[in-house]
Amino acid sequence: MEAVLQTKGLLSLPSNPRTRVFQSSLGLKQRFFSTKPKTPGGFSLSSNGFPKFPSFVPKNHGVAPIERNLFICRAEAAAAGQPAFGESEQPKFLGIETVTLKKIIPLGLMFFCILFNYTILRDTKDVLVVTAKGSSAEIIPFLKTWVNLPMAVGFMLLYTKLSNVLSKKALFYTVILPFIAFFGAFGFVLYPLSGYIHPEALADSLLNVLGPRFLGPLAILRIWSFCLFYVMAELWGSVVISVLFWGFANQITTVEEAKRFYPLFGLGANVALIFSGRTVKYFSNLRQNLGPGVDGWAMSLRGMMSIVVLLGLTICGLYWWVNTYVPLPTRSKKKKEKPKMGTMESLKFLVSSPYIRDLATLVVAYGISINLVEVTWKSKLKAQFPSPNEYSSFMGDFSTATGIATFTMMLLSQVIFEKYGWGVAAKITPTVLLLTGVGFFSLILFGGPLSPAIASLGMTPLLAAVYVGALQNIFSKSAKYSLFDPCKEMAYIPLDEDTKVKGKAAIDVVCNPLGKSGGALIQQFMILTFGSLANSTPYLGGILLVIVLAWLAAARSLDTQFTALRREEELEKEMERAAVKIPVVAQEGGRNGPLASDSVLNPTAGDPTGGKPPHRI
């Protein structure tokens, strides 16, 4: 920040003086906050090539006070809790600026619609592939590893290419509209025609040749349209939630707004979980009340897919409204602009960044950890509820309970962020997942000795494992939605635009399914090595411990880097604000004095003139 020139001794008059009128009756407040102050001419101070500011010569009415220029930058005005020079205070509603509300409310509604759809799609996809004829729960690891992951990688490559040629608005619509069209077409076209388009005879013949151990891979061929629905539902979570929504939220919000409101986005979203869970349960029970010969599941799909399409169009409308009527925040102009890069260059750049690697570790570790517990739990769930109606109805209750728990966590998350900071919030999710996972695996491993105690509660060990696993998933997902996701998205904000766009595409689209596929691969290896999932349970618990410890280490490293980037960004913003100086007239009655003390703006500086004689006016 510039040092202010200091004058010493008597002030000398300029040659050829002219009389100027200065309205000394105006107070400092009126002069400071005037929208366009008049600039009188005259001789001005200058030092080392800095811009000149006019001085004021008041009328001499006897003993007049000596007046001085005091340079105040916007940063100092903001630090004093006052609006910067030339800026009016923004109108507020309930203590929140209306401009902020115009961003936060539509974002909350968008998140509500997106997660409402995702809950319906997530609960439906498992019922489709698990309960279909010729399929079973064994198909899920193969789907995640050999179908979902390649499609996610392909989408990331396509998204990277499109991000270089399309605007942000065009990219958003180009990505989300095919999802909406597919889910509408599945409910009204693909599922009614599934009996004609599924190669069941070919799958049966191949199964007779290859044997029952290939039931899972062949089921992908047998019910390919259901598997395509499964993958599209998974990609909705990775693409629409992580890339489109959070990318848009990061684009239009500041870090301060994010810390205050990101955790609260989930409040409306988890109300959506509660209501969408009730919706799934309603349609699941609807099938039981239909007459014979009526395909109740087809009717349920039509109803649920109609809701998905309607809310998808609502998301597009909210996106259009925000882009049309809400101003974008001003970002630091000194950020390094990254050149356009090809696909391989983008991947190399992302891999070379420790910041992105730590973010990727967080996402992959969560995917592996939750998959190690969740797939084991779903196998118990399938055994307890073999009927599609019962399975879907239980998942509806599960989604509702998840919404209630997450809603409660959202209320606590803002306090956690404000009181303990980003680092503590980022470590809560792995800690919760580790503790609840230990409880779940312990119940499976020691279910026999605990059978009398469990029977006294009116439950079988299988039902107890289902309930404990459900609680584990509820607590883990609530911690993810309320803390893990906001932490992850906040970490993108200080990055430059190129790293932000391509980093999110690589991490959220590839690393998310990579974590799930990694967990599936671990389980497949354990099953082939030890003979069954039950025999490999102790080893899965040990792997879970290692993964969570690596997760905590990455969170600690990312916390250090995130804090450094935030300080750098704040410093750049302060320097930009300091580039505009504001002349403010101050009065010092009855004596000569310096224009400003060095300690005001540069307390460590010596002579601001660099040893040169002081300027006189």
TrEMBL record:
- Which domain of life does the protein's organism represent? Eukaryota
Looking up InterPro entries in the UniProt record yields: ADP_ATP_car_bac_type (IPR004667), MFS_trans_sf (IPR036259)
Name the residues that span the membrane.
104-121, 141-159, 171-193, 228-249, 261-280, 301-322, 398-416, 428-446, 453-475, 539-558
Entry keywords, A to Z: ATP-binding, Chloroplast, Membrane, Nucleotide-binding, Plastid, Transmembrane, Transmembrane helix, Transport
Q: Where is this region: Disordered?
A: 588-617
Major localization listed first in the record, in broad terms: membrane
One Gene Ontology cellular component annotation held by this UniProt entry:
chloroplast membrane
Q: Which one of the record's GO molecular function terms can you name?
A: ATP binding
Membrane topology recorded in Swiss-Prot or TrEMBL: Multi-pass membrane protein
Q: Where does it reside?
A: Membrane; Plastid, Chloroplast membrane
Q: Which family would the database say this protein is a member of?
A: Belongs to the ADP/ATP translocase tlc family.
| Full protein name | ADP,ATP carrier protein
Q: Which organism does this record belong to?
A: Malus domestica
